[in-house]
Amino acid sequence: MRNRTIRFSLGVLLGVAALALVGPWVSPNDYSGTNFDRLLSSPSFSGWHLFGTDDLGRDLFVRTMLGIRVTLVVAIVASLVSLVIGVAYGAIAGYVGGRVDAVMMRMVDTLYALPFIFFVILLMVAFERNFLLIFVAIGAVNWLDMARIVRGQTLSLREREFVEAARLTGAGTLRIIMRHIAPNLVGIVVVYITLTIPQAILVESFLSFLGLGVQEPQTSLGALVDAGVNQMEHASWTLLIPATLLAVILLSFNFLGDGLRDYFDARHAP
Amino acid sequence: MKLLRFLLLFTALLGGASCGGSGDQAPMGSVLQRGLPSDPETLDQHKARSVQAAEVLRDLGEGLVGYSPTGELVPAAAESWVMSDDGLTYTFRLRPNLSWSNGDALTAEHFVLGLRRLVNPETAAFYAQMIVAIDNAAAVVAGEAAPESLGVVAPDERTLVITVEQPTPYLLSLLTHPSTFPTHPGSLEAHGDGFARPGKLVSNGAYTLSAWVPGSIVALRRNPHYWNDANTAIDGVNYHVLVQDSSELNRYRAGELHITSTVPPDNFAQVRAEYGDQLRVAPSLGVYYYGFNLLRPPFADNPELRQALSMAIDRELLAEKVVGRGEIPAYSWVPPGVANYEPTTFAFAALSKTERESIARRLYKEAGYDENKPLRVEVRYNTSDTNKKIAVAIQSMWRDVLGVETVLINEEFQVLLANMRDAEVTEVFRSSWLGDYNDAHTFLSVLQGGSPANMPRYDNEEFDGLMQRAAAQVDLDRRRLYLEEAERVMLSDNPVIPLYFFVSKHLVSPRVRGWGDNVLDYHYSQHLSLGVPE
Amino acid sequence: MLRIAGAVPTLLLVIVLAFLMVHAAPGGPFDDERVLPADVEANIAASYHLDEPLPRQLLRYIGGLLQGDLGPSYRYRDYTVSELIASAFPLSLKLGAMAMALALVLGIAAGTAAALRQGSTFDRVVMGFAMTGISIPVFVIAPVLVMLLAVKLQWLPAGWSGTSGSSRYLLPVITLALPQVAYIARLTRASMIDVLARDFIRTARAQGLDTSTMLRVHALKPAMLPVLSYMGPAVAAILTGSVVVEEIFGIPGLGQFFVRGALNRDYTLVLGIVVFYATLIVFLNLVVDILYGVIDPRVRYR
Q: Among A77, A105, B84, C247, which is most exposed with the fewest C-beta within 10 angstroms?
């Protein structure tokens, strides 16, 4: 059962990603080419306008594919950023324990006090919507949770027998962390990643809604959906298509996370 | 079952929570619901600067002169006036028994106080410069003369005399502006600068300020002491602050608004189809343009290039297809419909599109560019759907006709303003100008050397000279000739690319009577009435 | 008490960070297309102390804070920041609390019901609905609901201002709660399934205990642990969502004031909101910390 979930959602995601990669190569249309004779035309096969055109006459199929790419890249990179920081931070805190742990966690609590969405907004406003900044901003929002979880996990792991054994044989702290603790974190980290990616996607689309996300002529699924909302009555495909794709991606990641969690849980079943 | 209990608990919570909610006043009588795109930054008429604040202020207060629903100057607080033969002295006679909303008598001295406060440097009023025509106004603003020396006096309670340094034919339209409204001395004394709050604000217009929830609503109620109260049909006005125009449209369609402040671009065609007769579109006093930074390359000292870029744009396409809400393609700087003026147009306005484009290509080559050496230019615009569409369209046009590589830079409004003023990084920037009064001067003066609104930093002696000579004319027809010639000179220099003229668009409920379309887009609530719902 | 002392440097750091970021943004609060003449601008800048060097402005601000003065708003000239926050916060709080309550009620109920009927069609349908909350952004759900319920059917008000009564809370609260309903439902379901499989439950069942008593007495509390630890992120998520919901419905809450403030460079308002929220969150963290220590003595700092 879980394997099916994992395989299915992974399959969907890879399929979507593949489509996003291949689609624009195959289509003769350009993502920024305007055409004022074809404003808001509905999907059709002529001219390869499979998803129709937007309010500036640009082909929506290619733009949606581009949007998927951007959305996935932003989300994955941002999640990796939070992963690296969070895991390192949490593992060290959890393993070393004592005063160091207390201080490090106190800092995490400090940072938790920041109303993050506000800081993300301020960041985007202060530094003029730099594309790279989006990764940083979103990644910065999530690493705290990762750190906390990893720390908790590390805390319980380090009391386990094999860690005791390693310590008794004189292995150094760093070695223990890397050799024994980290591999056992893989499960929870992987699961968590598949759950932070959807969060990152949603944060990016919030930013697009506020006008602070990816800038023209680039686009993301969030930006396409936001544009489509205003046209939902007379050009419903501009909303339905990107929204459905967005939902599919989000759901797939969530199901993937579920499936992976079940898988890892089963491995460690008592 | 469990579920049921939880749901009951929740509904109780919901009900309890909202019971304590402070509802907004529900007054008696007819209440007009209008949309406002953002909060007024203040209701102190001297510190206000935005169009939104002015709209609310026009309902709260009243100046010497006002406008009719169709945009004609009519007496307001002043029942009559006389201008001296040399055009330098205006004598106003106020109506009898004018009073403030708290019953205090309104005298001419209060107008004097108001105008003095306007030019007083301590007030730091934005529109202080607007009345620079009045004797000593400039000196007071610069801090070189006391406010008492301003050329405005009140020899008796109902007479006001204003002296101007030069004949100023548009003085009367200036006096409709909220920054010239009178000041209530008692309020200033009692509350200082914080007098513009509900419960403290004393007004002399058709309405008083009854409530203000920032971010939500500004509520006005009838002022029974207003001299024309008997002819004011609407009892109360609620200005709903609705920043998202799609939200405003939803409220209108749900029947919660009678008048919207605009129509969202994406829905315009649909709205026109569905609500044709409720949609009011009228030319208004505003121009949407792209400005060149004349202090930097590539546009400094390069008139051919500027003209080429201007000619390569298909303004009809922009107005009809890209913006598509009834806007008027702009081939001049001053919009049509301005009083006493016939705008000059670009020399190329009469040419066909093909002719224009071929001349544009020729000029482009003369400026030193071609396919192998294309121009690379940055266009900055502030975030908005419309601006984005126009920028993308122009990018295509410049690429297709000339081969120009355009980089689009989307900035926040504040950032763009800062960049335009510093003039250090901009090349082409998007901007707009809305007229403050119904005269060509409000548009042409923008491009005079030294004007703070002169973003392109246009500096042309001939233009400035013509403007100065126009200002010295008493005879309206001669003045007009000078102004039109000034516009012709400026247009041939191409410091700006006017793209289209704004139109005002409102959805007006069929229940609303008395609405008049006018070029200033002023719609005083006191002229309106609400009919019976169908 | 040590913890409280630890909170002060936190707040200080937050204030300084926010201050720097707001002032780092290009453009100032008084820029406008209707450009100010130079001397007028100088006058205004001076009266708001914007011409002073940044460190001095920062000190001035902190000094004001200590006296409870958050400064005047640059954008709403007739109001002080404290007044604006005082009018906006109760509203945001109400909305957030109602959304949280709704999310908890619906989420736990749905999750529990699904867990009890694990694997059945009911389970799948309920979870399916829950998933829509996660997979469709708030700024899509809200306008769609408004279009359907307010504009077309006119069952509910389309906006906030000028309407009174509880019906105007419904749409905003529902849209705000929806994503959280989904998360909480999934968490509850997973955790409940876990708990239900445990021995002591089986024993209770074998002893003939009926479902609802069993749930109430034995299963609910342990199953709620993951939900409890989700509360922190849940509050943060509702805060994030409130920014969007307030924009869409035109609700004068803190989220909307913040976004407008950031875009308008209303330094004091933005800082005031950040400081306010940070203080609140630090305080709440303290409370939660203490609660945790009480509930589960094993999870204590060494």
A: B84
ipTM of this predicted complex? 0.83
Angle at A20 between CA A15 and CA A24, to 5 degrees: 135
Structure-block tokens of residue C120: 């059945």
How far apart CA B268 and CA A162 sit, in angstroms, is 69
Interface test with A, best of C139, C199, C242 (most A CBs within 10 A): C139
Distance CA C155, CA C142 (A): 15
Distance between CA atoms of residues B56 and B32, nearest Å: 13
- Token representation of residue C131: 């998933």
| pTM for this predicted structure | 0.85
The answer to whether the Cβ–Cβ distance between C162 and B43 falls below 8 Å is no
Burial class of residue C55, CB neighbours in 10 A (0-12, 13-18, 19+)? exposed
Q: Do B254 and C151 lie within an 8 Å CB cutoff?
A: yes
Q: What are B140-198's pLDDT values in tens digits?
A: 888 888 999 999 999 999 999 999 988 888 899 899 999 999 999 999 888 888 888 89
**Chain segment B16-43, per-residue pLDDT in tens:** 444 443 444 444 578 999 999 988 989 9
pLDDT single digits (tens) B360-381: 999 999 988 888 889 899 999 9
Token pair recorded at residue A114? 């920041």
Instruction: Compute CA distances A26 → A61, B261, B263, C206, whole Å.
Output: 11, 45, 39, 63
Measured between beta carbons, the chain B residues lying within 8 angstroms of C146 are: 250
Query: Given strand B496-507, what is the order of strands in its sheet?
Result: B328-329, B496-507, B279-292, B428-434, B376-382, B405-411
CB-based burial label for B340 (10 Å; 0-12, 13-18, 19+): middle
CB B501 within 8 A of CB B336: yes
B86 three-state secondary structure? coil
Phi first, then psi: what are they for A112, rounded to 5°?
-60, -25
Chain C CB within 8 Å of residue A210 CB: yes
Q: Which helix (H) or strand (E) holds B317?
A: helix B315-317
Taking Cα atoms as reference points, which of A119, A142, A106, A148 lies closest to residue C286?
Answer: A106
State phi, psi for B464 to the nearest 5 degrees. -60, -40
Q: Which residues contact B317 (CB under 8 A, 6 or more apart)?
A: A36, B393, B397
H/E element, B406:
strand B405-411
**Domain residue limits, chain A:** 2-12+59-268
Burial of B285 (0-12, 13-18, 19+ CB in 10 A): buried
To the nearest whole angstrom, how far is the Cα of B117 from the nearest Cα of chain C? 13
Architecture of domain A2-12+59-268: Orthogonal Bundle (1.10)
